[in-house]
Amino acid sequence: MTQPAPAGVDAAASWFPQAMSRTLRNELGLIPGLMVIVPPVPATGATEVPDVVGWIVEAAASHEGGRTRFDIALRRKAEASPSWQRRFEYAADDDASRWRKEIPAAVAAQLGVAPKAVGAGDLGACRSVAAAEYTLRAIEAYGNYRTRDDLLRVRGWLEQALQQEPGCVEARAQHVMTHVSELSNRWSTDPKAQMELADRLSRQAVTESPLQPFAHLARLQLLRLQRQIDAALEEATTLTRLDPSNSLFMGRLAALQYDVGDAPAALATARKIQSLPSGTLAALQQGLLYEGMAHFSMGEEQQSAAVLRRLVALNPQNSFAWLMLASIEALHGRDPEATAALQRYLALSSAGQSIKRLRANETTIPEGKFKRQRERYYAGLRRAGLAE
Fold first, then answer.
1. Domains in the chain, please, with CATH?
2. How far apart are alpha carbons 231 and 94 in whole angstroms?
3. Do β-strands 2-4 and 48-50 pair in parallel, antiparallel, or remain unpaired?
4. Is 275 left (phi over 0), alpha (psi -120 to 50) or beta?
């Protein structure tokens, strides 16, 4: 599928093929990542460009106009496909110049713009149109996988992308993530061998493309799975150096600082997340959550409760924040507030739904099969001071 390039002397400078905006999902929703650059429009004689994902991003030669045209292209796609609406809303909130740093020097020269510090080859983005198409398809599907078969289908597309372009670190990093997901879901038929394979692949990606953030992210996820928290903390630190404005990376750092017991560092990182230039609602919520957790671990329960109340006011659907808030209220003897917060948690969380079902069916649940599950849920409530 092709679309005509605009007529005029600056046609090559105002258009270039753009494969995608990466859509890794985390608990806070869609996040943007590296863009995959496909071969640029020739400086002269260009009459059409490949439309590798069904849409063309219009890139202006001027810094001021670039983001506006980029948003217009995203909005057009969002209007045509409701599933793109959240992606557009996030991109519109993102740092206005962030996408430009991902333009390699060779492409930047043809666009007539100054290249950023990260040059061609450092990002490891797919430059083959076929590899970019397979990678995009895989990333879209990865965000919605539910079963092992779904995950294997994603991996198959990534393997096809790597056949087309073995050096595409974008695809290689996502390939490692599929192994991490399979292991974390306990779907692997040979966990030991798969862990060794994922370890080797992630090391290779980081070694060969040290400036590619998502190679480090894949490595970080694997190290967390292996319980190598100190090594994962090093990867998180590297990530935040590569992209200090990325709330996902900062969130990973805060979580690991919390895991190793460095609550003051986690608190400082959480506050940095809230002051990121992008100023997105997702980043603010993430920062508030880690700030509340850090205060709590430092014994500052009143400060934690105040932060968590801000969080649930912003996002009443955050079940974990309600559970923490219920715990704090119960510790301070505020039973009505604790009960109200616990009810919100039970109404929202999958664990809460399970507790309610267990309570409703206590007399009919076979003692053997469900006893451990029921005891585990009640033990959690007792530890939180919410059940006797």
1. 1-120 (no CATH), 121-226 (1.25.40), 325-388 (no CATH)
2. 30
3. antiparallel
4. alpha
The angle subtended at Cα 108 by Cα 102 and Cα 109, nearest 5°, is: 160
The letter for the amino acid at 207 is T
pTM: 0.55
Residue 164, both tokens: 């087309």
Residue 150, Cα to own-chain centre: how many angstroms? 19
The CA–CA distances, whole Å, from 258 to 110, 166, 232 equal: 46, 37, 12
pLDDT along the chain (388 residues), means of 10: 34 28 26 29 34 28 33 47 43 36 42 37 53 76 82 91 84 87 85 88 81 80 84 85 78 84 87 74 80 86 88 83 83 81 76 53 45 55 55
Bridge partners of 29?
Answer: 26
